[in-house]
Amino acid sequence: MVVRLTALAVGALVLAGCGGSDGGDDAGATPATSTQATTSLNLTLDFAPNAVHTGLYVAQERGLFSKAGLAVRIRVPGSGADGAKLLSAGRTDLAIMDIHDVALARQEGADLVAVGAIVQRPLAAVLASPDVTRPRELEGRTVGVTGLPSDDAALDQIVRGDGGDPERVKRATIGFEAVASVVSGKVAAAIGFWNAEGVALTARRPRTKVFRLDAFGAPRYPELLVVATSRTLRERGDAVARFADVVAQGYRAVASTPAGDDDEAVDALRSGSGDRSIDPATTEQQLAAVKPAFRDEQGRTGTLDRATMRTWSAWEAQVGITRTPPDVGELVWSRAPGS
User: Fold this and answer.
1) Distance CA 120, CA 223 (A)
2) Does the residue 32 lie in any domain?
3) Cβ-Cβ contacts under 8 Å for 273 (sequence gap 6 or more)
4) Based on CB atoms within 10 Å of each CB, which residue in 76, 130, 137, 211 is the most buried?
């Protein structure tokens, strides 16, 4: 399945590279015992390193993984890479995946278990031209979608949540060209991620309207999950638990940084990924948008709340993304933070 974050290429984020070495120190890290052997784990990202991954690289640059007895290699996926397939083939130990991709892969029999989350809110939004003042005004107009099932579900929910009729909205498949399609007038609006295309489009057209999915009736749920296979959890469950704890610490550090003081996170992203072509200004803009979404409703980072996930599960099937509600008991690891 094509990962929705492909659209982050907009705004000079066509990146490459792989994880750097652990460095630094931090008193808040989960300590490794003196007899604990170092465990190696490979983590594959969902896309090229960008603002949503800063918590991972801050944890890496502060040495939190090594202090927890872990040697973590952060890998960037190749073009068209599929996290579910990489996990199933044993080519990675952990992967960042969109929650809808996880649900659909599990529906087809994939052995995927969520061990944590990095973004605690839905990222989908309708990004509309300035003359669209509310979603129901899109009736009779054309909205761009990528072709992913979750796009149509998000558009339907947002229009319906504003009292409109989604059946009266015209749709055009535009791939991952939301920004260009809206700016050119090819479509009146497009589905995109508010932290990526939304930031890029607003920078080009400040009066852009951004209608977020969970502001129009969708439940709040974690968009991006850290995923493993049940085999990995059986064989290296203690190491994965330490990993999930350190990831929560990294995102807590980023989320706690005052606005406008994100140099450490941006520098960690650039140095840890080894990609100096990452644009600091673009990353800072995207980080300012997404940073509040690193915390759940209780202010925690890295967590998977089962009640939240059950509400999402029911909605996932209700809007037609999956045929039946995903089994939260099997999807969420019993040792995941917050579970």
Assistant:
1) 6
2) no
3) 15, 17, 18, 19, 20, 49, 57, 74, 76
4) 211
Contact of 309 with 328, CB cutoff 8 Å: yes
Phi-psi region of 63 (alpha: psi -120 to 50; beta: other; left: phi over 0): left
In a domain, residue 339? The reply is: no
Half-sphere exposure of 160 (CA within 13 A, CB side): 12
Question: Can you give the residue range of the structural domain that contains 198?
Answer: 124-215
DSSP assignment letter at 213: G
Q: What's 56's domain CATH number? A: 3.40.190.10
Can you give the pTM of this predicted structure? 0.89
Based on the fold, state whether residues 10 and 112 are members of the same structural domain.
Answer: yes
Q: What is the mean pLDDT of residues 299-312?
A: 98
Token pair 């055009």 is found at 172
CA distance 147 to 138: 18
Residues 241 and 252 in one domain: yes
* Structure tokens that stand for 116 in this block: 């944590």
Question: Is residue 299 included in any domain, yes or no?
Answer: yes
Task: Give 256's contacts (C-beta < 8 A, 6+ positions apart).
Answer: none
Indicate whether 22 pLDDT > 60: no
Q: Nearest CA to 309 among 51, 115, 152?
A: 115
Structural domains of the chain, count: 2
Residue the block writes with tokens 């409703």? 297
Sign of the dihedral through C-alpha 219, 223, 228, 234:
negative
Q: List pLDDT tens digits, range 138-159.
A: 999 999 999 989 999 999 999 9
- What six digits make up the tokens of 266? 């941006």
Of 215, 247, 273, the last residue of a domain is 215
